[in-house]
């Protein structure tokens, strides 16, 4: 296509309606017609990025290949579209303001008063249009975080208004709302939707398409009413009912004709078939699996499942491709001790030790590792999970009493995990870890080699501490193999215990790169081993 088309997705009535999934689903449908699509998330908070946010505040922190700590919606975009995102796909108000203030200090606005309009809005628009430069994409789908009417999101809606006005034919706006069901009268209520569209109109934006989130089927009458009161075409009122799995949403949106209306609004001919063959093949596997595989995820944020979004989704992909239904047990690491581990972890086919920061719950993770190692239960340790595997091995196999990570016990006599040299001088907290994709060289004859089938792999990272190479010889002499090493820095990326059926720890995060059409081999193989157990 000669012009890049911009699609905005706003939300009303309530938060957490699933704008990210709707945006990703639309992206998938356009991509399935052969178009080049990218999804972007604009977050109205003041943090520069979500890297310093507690997962309980904002769910998982996702990491892009170029080392950006990003909103978890970018994970959905990558999993749905199977295309990598970058720093430019996630912008916060913090970054917008930081850029403008830096330019002000630099003197770029000399003599002028720097204001929300036009300076902040211009910067927002620049960041949206940046994805459309050099004709890299046919469609840029920009999701505006938050809910219409929030003070924080005003400059974003104003930017959308300006783009809709200035680039009429190349922009459209989808507004996602909620239609509650009143059990007492047995009715779906459209008033909240009407009010939220009015709010949007007051800010100068007329949505082209409404997507109604609902727990009950939206009748023709309800659609007509919404269309009439909100100035949208009848076929531009799209129902988004609850579904069993988020991977069903693109198919539902296709049935509702969301992609067709979008093309019409943007003046793009609807003349290409939508190829969802592979997607549907995955869905069939996901929906038709009868037998279960029972995986325990040991972590400290299990009370908010969004905190481990990418891990959960990777396990769902891997289970489906192994023709199993995932039975995921979320286990609070603080609850586990050496005494009760057998009871808590009993009956699991596989155990995954989650990444994390700080001391809370790590002794529980270490006890879970011990249980998995001694009972030969397939076990995957990710980042802090891998570090716990090393600590457990040092303590219980090498007999190094009190072995630890200096992150968790700075005065440990055996620093089997220690701060990376490059991190020693880092004082700033945000965006300062070892972040993004790095290479890892895999040792021949190892389990990990048979899984990847490659000598060099590239995986994403987010950490400050590393395996202490001073202990490598002792580990290897006692059976723990360091099977993946970063070729530039010698950093141990992978450890494995060949005498166990499946026991692998990775310093990187494979969960960030598992997608529906390209499930991650490490998860597939881990689940396979769990099934075979
Ligand atoms: N806290 C550990 C480190 O910084 C592990 C980080 C993680 O699990 N993402 O090295």
Give a verbal description of the structure:
The structure is a single chain. Helix 14 links the parallel strand 14 and strand 15 (379-382). The mean pLDDT is 96. Helix 4 (93-106) packs across helix 5 (116-129), helix 12 packs across helix 18 and helix 14 (362-374) crosses helix 15 (384-396). This protein has a nine-stranded mixed sheet with strand order 13-12-14-15-23-22-21-18-19, sandwiched between helices. The protein has a seven-stranded parallel sheet with strand order 5-2-6-1-7-10-11, with helices on both faces. Strands 16-17-20 form a three-stranded mixed sheet, covered by helices on one side. It is globular and about 75 Å long. Helices cover 35% and strands 22% of the residues. It is of the alpha/beta class and 533 residues long. The chain has 18 helices and 23 strands. Bound molecules: glutamine. The site of glutamine (GLN) has 10 residues, from strand 19.
């Amino acid at each position: 296509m000669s012009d890049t088309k911009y699609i905005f997705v706003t939300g009303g009535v309530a938060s957490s309606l699933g704008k990210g999934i709707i945006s990703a689903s639309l992206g998938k449908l356009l991509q399935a017609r052969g178009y080049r699509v990218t999804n972007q998330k604009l977050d109205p908070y003041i943090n520069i990025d979500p890297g310093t946010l507690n997962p309980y505040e904002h769910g998982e922190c996702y990491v892009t290949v170029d080392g950006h700590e990003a909103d978890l919606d970018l994970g959905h975009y990558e999993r749905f579209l199977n295309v990598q995102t970058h720093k430019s796909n996630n912008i916060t108000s913090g970054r917008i303001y930081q850029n403008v203030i830096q330019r002000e200090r630099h003197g770029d606005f000399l003599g002028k008063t720097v204001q929300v309009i036009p300076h902040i809005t211009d910067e927002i628009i620049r960041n949206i249009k940046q994805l459309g430069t050099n004709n890299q994409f046919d469609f840029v789908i920009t999701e505006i975080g938050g809910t219409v009417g929030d003070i924080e999101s005003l400059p974003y809606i104003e930017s959308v208004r300006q783009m809709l006005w200035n680039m009429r034919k190349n922009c459209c706006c989808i507004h996602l709302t909620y239609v509650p069901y009143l059990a007492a009268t047995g009715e779906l209520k459209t008033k909240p939707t009407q009010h939220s569209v009015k709010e949007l109109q007051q800010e100068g934006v007329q949505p082209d398409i409404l997507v109604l989130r609902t727990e009950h089927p939206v009748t023709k009458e309800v659609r007509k009413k919404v269309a009439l009161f909100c100035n949208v075409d009848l076929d531009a009122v799209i129902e988004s009912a609850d579904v069993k799995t988020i991977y069903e949403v693109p198919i539902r949106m296709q049935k509702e004709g969301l992609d067709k209306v979008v093309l019409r609004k943007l003046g793009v001919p609807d003349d290409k078939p939508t190829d969802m063959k592979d997607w549907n093949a995955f869905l069939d596997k996901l929906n038709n699996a009868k037998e279960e595989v029972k995986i325990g995820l040991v972590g400290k944020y299990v009370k908010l499942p969004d905190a481990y979004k990418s891990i959960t989704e990777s396990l769902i992909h891997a289970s489906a491709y192994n023709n199993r239904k995932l039975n995921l047990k979320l286990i609070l690491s603080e609850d586990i001790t050496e005494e009760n581990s057998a009871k808590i972890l009993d009956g699991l086919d596989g155990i995954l030790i989650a990444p994390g920061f700080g001391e809370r719950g790590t002794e529980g993770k270490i006890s879970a590792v011990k249980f998995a190692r001694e009972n030969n239960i397939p076990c995957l340790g990710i980042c802090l999970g891998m570090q716990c595997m090393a600590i457990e091995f040092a303590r219980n196999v090498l007999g190094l009493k009190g072995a630890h990570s200096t992150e968790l016990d700075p005065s440990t006599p055996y620093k089997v995990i220690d701060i990376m040299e490059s991190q020693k001088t880092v004082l700033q907290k945000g965006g300062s870890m070892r972040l993004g994709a790095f290479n890892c060289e895999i040792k021949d004859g190892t389990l990990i080699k048979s899984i990847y089938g490659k000598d060099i792999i590239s995986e994403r990272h987010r950490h400050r501490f590393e395996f202490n190479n001073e202990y490598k010889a002792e580990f290897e002499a006692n059976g723990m193999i360091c099977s993946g090493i970063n070729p530039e820095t010698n950093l141990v990326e992978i450890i494995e215990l060949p005498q166990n059926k499946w026991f692998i720890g990775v310093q990187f995060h494979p969960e960030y790169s598992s997608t529906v059409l390209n499930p991650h081999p490490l998860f597939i193989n881990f689940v396979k081993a769990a099934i075979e157990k």
